[in-house]
Design a protein that fits this description.
Layout lengths: L13 H10 L1 H4 L3 E5 L15 H6 L7 E5 L3 E5 L4 H7 L6 E4 L5 H8 L5 E4 L6 H12 L4 E4 L4 H5 L12 E2 L2 H4 L3 H14 L4 E4 L2 H8 L1 E2 L12 E5 L4 E4 L7 H8 L3 E3 L4 H10 L3 E4 L6 H9 L3 E4 L3 H7 L3 H26 L8 H18 L6 E2 L4 E4 L22 E7 L1 E3 L2 E2 L2 E7 L4 H18 L9 H14 L9 E3 L8 E6 L12 E4 L2 E4 L3 E4 L2 E9 L8 E6 L17 H18 L6 H10 L5
Parallel strand pairs: 1-5, 3-4, 5-6, 8-13, 11-12, 13-14
Antiparallel strand pairs: 1-2, 2-3, 7-9, 8-10, 10-11, 15-18, 16-17, 17-20, 18-19, 21-22, 23-26, 24-25, 26-27
Helix pairs in contact: 5-6, 12-13, 15-16, 15-20, 17-18
């Protein structure tokens, strides 16, 4: 299994650890400390050695930050994690904060604690975060204290070792572009901007740029690494040499000078002392890097990492690989769903089902000679009220049976060498109450609206986000997460800059892969989400229109449970879209499904509704 269901933290563990952290405050000259869910590379998904927030507080979500003060502690999370936070932390010890509406710098500006000396680890915060904190603290005389050795590490006696995952090369026929060509494009960009060097501090950007993949972070195949690209075409990549075997070393040595992670700071300092103009991304680069440049008398300029947009716009080979990966994943989903429909209500648990799905992906990958390399994130497998926890992680403590009269939600994905998948389906276990079917249909209406959307060049994710919500809004309901996120090409399942959400300010461009996943959640009762991946298509004319419009191509092929659909709530156009989608699911997947009983199930599951 690529995932474990063991309990990794408990609320009662936090009290002695927070007390031990506070005991270090006087020696550090602070009376508060920030513990973000971040590592020195500013990744969303972390190696076990960097899970400081989980170790200290018990909260295991992928986004959050703890503010530990002398007599108070607050853990800030976004709307995906409010229910999870309440279950994982001790309410007598910590309160919950709003990471989006009132993040730490806004919280502190409102509270104005007298004599605040706020400690931070400068490697775990970006320049953008530090500027926000400094501005907030200046309003009431607070002080920001940079702590060189993270105090959480001092009290973490059994901290896991740093990862040593081996690095592999992503073949050119899957990458679609040679690494040397990508590096050449960046060198030309630097010349055009009259800059001398670019710091690439995001490991997934380094992985894409050099066409390498790694095993350092669970479910995300990017090695922990950084790079410096120079205007003269030279490059340095900073990566643990223990992860590189001789063939990979030979390939990388043709592209760049290889150095250890510890050499990164001195290399930045040398550039700065030589008077180089260094480009970096203020929203990605650790603040510690800016300090190194400024301490050496160097110059830097902040701009969005150009690798991020280049990586987001998939080339023809990446799109072809993703289409193939999704077809294979669809065949695995059919095998899994047929199995699930054969189980009696109350006979299987959330863990049983998650294991069966992973096994279906593995068996299908072996049969189709495109092995499952990993899952793309820990499977969200929630039955009944557990499905209302947006980022629910089933454990041996929370494991629940799939009972009759309830809905079951499974959000999962696979990592294949030719693509990354992410799909959510919600299913009926027995006969589900009419009210739950109503909400399922309202969510489906939003998912269809995004899938069928046409929109002009320059449209941002935030411009089309309301399309997914309008049916729910009319019913007096909404959901507390974004509608869609970018997805990588055998890289991170969460990739920017594109997203469909209220905060999705990046322009949607042809070739970007993005999820479409509206939902609805009634805490303590049920949860619904339906998700397909889409790719933005080139602008084409619309009959009777006066300008070409972008649109979406669907990548995900899997039946949507017709037992949960109230067809009376769907328009004629929505029914036509759904029947056409199911017809294409049937046509594309039937040749890939080896078992006759599974093909018969697929035929029934995609039967037209009109």
């Amino acid at each position: 299994m690529f995932q474990s269901f063991e309990v990794v933290s408990r609320p009662e563990q936090a009290a002695p650890r927070i007390a031990a952290l506070r005991a270090l405050f006087p020696k550090l000259g602070i009376n508060a400390f920030l513990v973000p869910h971040a590592d020195e590379y500013q990744g969303e998904y972390l190696p076990p050695s960097a899970e400081r927030l989980a170790f200290l507080t018990g909260f295991t979500g992928s986004a959050g930050i703890a503010l530990i003060m002398e007599k108070e502690a607050v853990v800030f999370v976004d709307g995906r994690y409010t229910t999870q936070l309440a279950a994982q932390v001790d309410p007598a010890l910590m309160s919950g904060g709003d990471l989006v509406g009132e993040p730490p710098h806004v919280f502190l500006a409102g509270r104005r604690p007298k004599g605040l000396k706020l400690g931070i680890d400068p490697w775990l915060h970006t320049l953008k975060e530090i500027e926000q904190l400094k501005q907030a603290l200046s309003g009431f005389g607070g002080e920001l204290v940079l702590v060189e050795d993270n105090p959480v590490d001092r009290i973490w006696s059994d901290r896991p070792a740093e990862p040593k995952g081996k690095i592999s090369i992503q073949p050119d026929h899957l990458a679609g572009q040679k690494a040397s060509e990508k590096l050449g494009s960046l060198a030309s960009m630097l010349s055009g901007k009259n800059a001398d060097a670019l710091l690439v501090s995001d490991p997934t950007a380094v992985a894409w740029l050099f066409n390498i993949r790694g095993l350092d972070v669970a479910h995300t195949p990017s090695p922990l690494s950084r790079a410096i690209i120079r205007r003269d075409g030279g490059a340095m990549i900073f990566i643990d040499s223990d992860k590189i075997d001789d063939p990979v070393r030979a390939d990388l040595a043709r592209l760049a000078d290889l150095a250890e992670p510890a050499d990164f700071g001195p290399a930045v300092t040398d550039l700065a002392r030589a008077g180089a103009m260094i480009l970096l991304d203020p929203a990605q680069a650790p603040f510690a890097v800016v300090r190194l440049i400024e301490a050496a008398g160097g110059h830097w300029s902040g701009q969005a990492d150009p690798v991020v947009l280049a990586r987001a716009i998939k080339n023809a080979a990446e799109l072809s690989g993703s289409r193939q990966a999704h077809l294979q994943d669809g065949a695995a989903m059919v095998s899994f769903l047929h199995w699930l429909d054969c189980q009696e209500p109350g006979s299987v648990s959330e863990i049983d089902v998650a294991e069966a799905l992973e096994d279906a992906r593995r068996r299908t990958g072996d049969r189709m000679q495109n092995p499952l390399k990993d899952i793309s994130f820990e499977t969200i497998s929630g039955a009944g009220p557990n499905a209302a926890i947006i980022h629910y992680r089933v454990t041996t403590d929370t494991n629940r049976m799939l009972n009759a009269g309830e809905m079951y939600l499974v959000d999962s994905g696979g990592q294949y060498q030719n693509g990354t998948t992410d799909i959510t389906r919600t299913f009926a276990i027995g006969t589900v109450p009419a009210e739950q079917r109503r909400f399922f249909t309202l969510v489906l209406k939003g998912m269809i609206a995004i899938s069928a959307a046409r929109f002009p060049v320059g449209t941002r994710g935030q411009d089309i986000d309301p399309l997914a919500r309008i049916a729910l809004w009319k019913a007096g309901a909404d959901y507390g997460h974004g509608t869609g996120h970018g997805v990588g090409s055998y890289l991170s399942v969460h990739e920017g800059p594109q997203r469909i959400s209220r905060a999705g300010g990046a322009v949607l461009e042809p070739g970007m892969i993005i999820s479409n996943e509206p939902g609805y959640y009634l805490p303590g009762s049920f949860g619904i989400r339906i998700e397909n991946l889409l790719v933005v298509t080139e602008a084409t004319p619309v009959d009777g229109g006066d300008r070409p419009m972008l649109g979406f191509e669907t990548l995900t092929w899997c039946p949507i449970d017709a037992r949960l659909i109230d067809t009376a709530l769907l328009t004629r156009e929505e029914l036509v879209w759904l029947d056409a989608y199911h017809g294409e699911v049937r046509e594309r997947l039937s040749p890939l499904v080896a078992d006759a009983a599974e093909r018969a199930w697929l035929e029934a599951a995609t039967r037209p509704l009109t």
